[in-house]
Design goal:
The protein has 114 residues and is an alpha/beta fold. 20% of the residues lie in helices and 32% in strands.
Length: 114
């Protein structure tokens, strides 16, 4: 594991652009299958961040996550983006973080919804 590297994946262009704007010293790295990652650092820290746009959908996210792991062996992978209408108590600008990670094609079913 590369403890100095984190991968950030986004689904939408607006999310990608917001993260990219915070990175310095950008350079392109291409996975053998053709996926392009922009690699830079979050200032003022000097750790490396690899950024990729995965698009919408679970399957593309799963494929690019596997590619990111094989390419960078990162300490962490973050899927970053805007969340819409999850719950009434979540406001615009709030940070939402998962407490559980399920299979990319699965979900949980509860009495009050999924």
């Amino acid at each position: 594991m590369n403890t100095d590297r984190v991968v950030i994946l986004t689904a939408l262009d607006i999310e990608y652009s917001a993260v990219r704007a915070r990175l310095a010293n950008l350079r392109m790295e291409v996975h053998p299958a053709g996926t392009r990652f922009e690699v830079g650092s979050l200032e003022p820290r000097h750790g490396c961040v690899a950024l990729a746009l995965v698009g919408k959908g679970n399957h593309p996210a799963a494929v690019l996550t596997e590619r990111a792991i094989s390419q960078f062996d990162p300490a962490a992978i973050l899927f970053v983006g805007v969340a819409g209408a999850l719950r009434e108590h979540i406001a615009l600008g709030d940070v939402v973080m998962a407490t559980h990670v399920y299979a990319y094609h699965g979900a949980t079913s509860e009495d009050d919804g999924s």
